[in-house]
Amino acid sequence: MMIEIEEIRILVIEDEKPIADILEYGFKKEGFRVKSAYTGADGLSGAEEFEPNLVLLDWMLPDLSGVDVCKMLTEMYNIPIIMLTARGSIDDKVYGLESGADDYITKPFDLREVIVRVKTILRRFGKSLKGQEEQEIRVENAVISERERTVCQDGEYVELTPKEFDLLVWLVKNPRRVFTRSHLLDEIWGYDFMGDTRTVDIHIQRLRKKLCMGESIVTVFGVGYKYVPKE
């Protein structure tokens, strides 16, 4: 079964209380459970106690950088993270995504847009939480469990972010087929994702670093990527 909205927990890590209050009000009105934290340290402890399904994370926090908090969260948990920031340059967006964020929303934002973006990510993330969807995918030296959203390589578990996992599964389930970056953005991030195609490049680079089978994810220059299993 899909996770019900009232079971979904949203952690807001935002030092500006009026913004945190607006987000908390909006998501509670939609039926979500919400907890707010106003510092990076409180956000990290809140993630441990509250066990959120998604984190809305401000870039600028009074104690820790939001990017550092993002890196720590992705190391500890397999949950989607949306960065909230007034920094709107492409370089900043790329840096945030490289740090493990799954999406990026620039301030000032429309609350309705934030809610839609959150629902879209949760819907895509929740697809593989259905009861009996898939068993295991065995590729080369790795075992991928869609049900548990885990990758076990040579007997050891590899920590992937939600988008890294979704991208890997999509590629290995479509071997030798070439996908453009735009196609992968549509399939993995959704049609309403506001980032650019470099997002795909960043996630491919991270998969290659984390997986021994990463060399099987081949760049098709001028087009995109494909997965070519070893014979």
Layout of strands and helices, then pairs:
Layout: E1 9-13, H1 17-29, E2 33-37, H2 40-50, E3 54-58, H3 66-76, E4 81-85, H4 90-98, E5 103-106, H5 111-126, E6 136-139, E7 142-145, E8 150-153, E9 156-158, H6 162-172, E10 179-180, H7 181-189, H8 198-210, E11 217-220, E12 224-227
Parallel strand pairs: 1-2, 1-3, 3-4, 4-5
Antiparallel strand pairs: 6-7, 7-8, 8-9, 10-12, 11-12
Characteristic key phrases:
231 residues; alpha/beta; 5-stranded parallel beta sheet; 4-stranded antiparallel beta sheet
Structure description:
Helices cover about 40% and strands about 20% of the residues. It is built from eight helices and twelve strands. It has helices at about 15-30, 40-50, 65-75, 90-100, 110-125, 160-170, 180-190, 200-210; strands spanning about 10-15, 35, 55-60, 80-85, 105, 135-140, 140-145, 150-155, 155-160, 180, 215-220, 225. It has a five-stranded parallel beta sheet with strand order 2-1-3-4-5, with helices on both faces. Strand 1 (about 10-15), helix 1 (about 15-30) and strand 2 (about 35) form a beta-alpha-beta unit. It is globular, with a radius of gyration of 18 Å. It starts with 8 loop residues before the first strand and ends with a strand.
Roughly what fraction of the amino acids lie in strands? Answer: 15-25%
Strand order of the largest sheet: 2-1-3-4-5
Please tell me the overall pLDDT: 84
Strand tally:
12
CA-CA gap between termini = 37 Å
Major sheet attributes = 5 strands, parallel
Count helical runs: 8
**What gross morphology would you assign?**
globular
Find the structural class using helix and strand composition: alpha/beta
Radius of gyration: 18 Å
As residue ranges, the low-confidence spans are 127-133
Order of helices and strands: EHEHEHEHEHEEEEHEHHEE
Helix content: 40-55%
